[in-house]
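Model it.
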Amino acid sequence: MDRLAAAAEPFDMLGAEYERAFGRLPEQLAAVEWLAARLPQGARVLDIGSGTGRPVAEALVGAGFRVTGIDVSATMVALARDRVPGGRFERQDVRDFRAPDGSFEAVCAFFPLLRMSRAEQRAVLERIAAWVTPGGLFVSATVPGDIEDHPMVWMGMQMSVTSFPAERYLKEIERTGLNILRSTRSVFSPDSELAEPEDHLFCYARRPGGPAVPEHVLLGPYPLPEEYRGPHGLSGQAWAAFEPYFDREDIPAVVDALDGNERVLDVGGGTGAGVRAIAARLGHCTTVEPHATRRETIRTQLPGIEVHSGRAEALPLPDDSFDAVVATWVLHYTEDPDAAVSEMLRVLDLSHPAAKVVLIQGAPDNEMVRLLNTHCTAIAGEQPDHQGYLLTRAARLLAEAGLDDISFRRVGARLALDGPTPQDSAGAAAGLLADFWHTGHPRNPDMREALGAELAPAFASGPHTVQDDAVLLIARAGRTATRP
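Modeled.
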């Protein structure tokens, strides 16, 4: 039996049974989400050991990436082609696969090396590192162990496997020139009576070089503006009127991102919604807010919260004071967004293992921003707003400081009205939106009229909501984090 047939035999026999046993591996699903949050739009991804195409190739194709899957098993390739028609699948042994250097923005290798010798595993890892484009990503998983040609029964079949101990496996990846961003260990119990619980090691790595921030789909629309349009104005009165109708999922997402953090700064506390949620999780929070009325609101409603007067561009706090800094919907109100991000970095303790900056800005298809650009900033004769531009600039500064594990994820938010009729809701929404950035503007009535004309028919045929989806940026400290 030749090498390809020998490697394929157990998987040809298992077929879809392998998917039933291993198709819902939580760490594997999390790894796919990790990739989708970091890869540029339309990225080329190689899935080594693609199996039935589920869940990895299916999820990556669904996210808009161009996926090539290779597998030793003809049965698995046939199943993958049927299940994931948007992918390209080939019967190939990775030891024989050839691709030019830099062919893929990402490579996945979930458990395909275990039936190779250690010398073969080293050689494959070296070639994978070359296939990844500079700045690209490699996500892998193995069953760690100090074993060579070890006989065992797996899924009812006799076979031999070879592996490295966990730390040695990570060193083998680093030896290829890839930088490991993080690794995780877990135990997984397959959904099959034929398999026993397995110890799994997942590794997340990046090839050095490439752009600091790829053209992620959530940073668009592209092309980006060449310069900052300048800050918007937001009166406390306008926000107070808007907030009761703001149905938001961004705050729970921010709080969840603070896992492992203890000293958190919220920049631009507003009326305290985010501060309240952070304090509820951690027991305390510090905030900096420029507006006296909002500071007083926070102090009155949230006793025990440390409240400071100041702007994002000049935080009145010492260096290295916090292990996480949060800014939700803040950058477009700053005179100098770059200075604001630099200040966040200054007060962040980069030596903390969970150090991170968490930002929220609007999604590229944010309906509220579109309405404001179309019917308010245009009438006012101003440059349109571009939220992705702000996130891109912020991400570049964060990456330069060593917070180079940067992810982008959509979170839901909406303006939800409850007027007795669609016309009432449309009128109320038009008023809230016109006042949002242009309270007191001499052409505010024209803005209301234009907004109402578009919203009335939309509300008549659908829910009385305006989509205000956001992008959650999380920048974590890498192994070489340094002060900018």
